[in-house]
Write a structure and sequence with these properties.
Length: 81
């Protein structure tokens, strides 16, 4: 089963950092050849704009996602040490 990553691309989350976070996720997938293991999609708004940028991984919503925390979560999710 692929890991489902939904990145909120609503204007608030996009401006708060998901533009960069999307690039980071795409680069991460490329670096670790995760294309087959990830189902990446975007959403318009997750209803938590003030806590954004928001990213949902396998149904769990992560709020205020900044670069370092996102890398930690991706490493953990894909068992990369
Ligand atoms: S724009 Fe992302 S939660 Fe609203």
């Amino acid at each position: 089963m692929p890991v489902k990553i939904v990145i909120c691309m609503g204007s608030s989350c996009f401006a708060r950092g998901n533009e960069q976070n999307l690039k980071l996720i795409e680069q991460f997938m490329k670096d670790y050849r995760l294309d087959a293991e990830v189902e990446l999609s975007g959403s318009c708004c997750e209803g938590n704009c003030s806590d954004g940028p928001n990213i949902i991984i396998d149904g769990k919503q992560y709020r205020r996602m900044e670069r370092g925390a996102l890398i930690d979560i991706l490493n953990h999710t894909f068992n990369i040490t």
